[in-house]
Amino acid sequence: MTTTIYHNPNCGTSRNVLALIRNSGEEPEVIEYLDTPPSRERLVDLIAAMGIPVRNLLRRKGTPYDDLGLDDPKFSNDELIDLMLAHPILINRPIVETSLGTRLCRPSEAVLEILPNPQQGEFRKEDGELVVDANGRRVNESAAR
């Protein structure tokens, strides 16, 4: 199975996740979901594979979430999915699919749990935080500071 990332290149978390995938030696299929949103069936499948409630995939910051009143519990899962399809920016990111699972990778280190290949060297997030040491081992947050 090819690793796939639903990516927003303007999102630092998404860029870090893409870089972590590449640091494992894999070149994923990159879907810029704002330009190429998933179909309804695909989005439903992704949510099921992640095992999360539909509401947990909604992004608030920088979206029409508040304007649409999405805090209101009146919206059904189907209605929320329809709104995500109408406004893809409402879909939180990045979503990564691998042979080991599907995750909403927030924080970016969450991708390490589902990558089939180990990290091949040191990795630092864009902000300089060390995530993986020179031996390809994950560095815990408290030890990195």
Task: Walk me through this protein's architecture.
There is one protein chain. The protein has one domain: Glutaredoxin (3-Layer(aba) Sandwich). The protein is 26% helix and 14% strand. It is built from 4 helices and 6 strands. It has helices at residues 12-23, 40-50, 77-86, 141-144, and strands at residues 4-7, 29-32, 95-98, 101-104, 123-124, 130-132. Strand 1, helix 1 (12-23) and strand 2 (29-32) form a beta-alpha-beta unit. It starts with a strand and ends with a helix. The model has no long low-confidence stretch (mean pLDDT 95). This is Arsenate reductase. InterPro entries: Arsenate_reductase, Arsenate_reductase-like, Thioredoxin-like_sf.
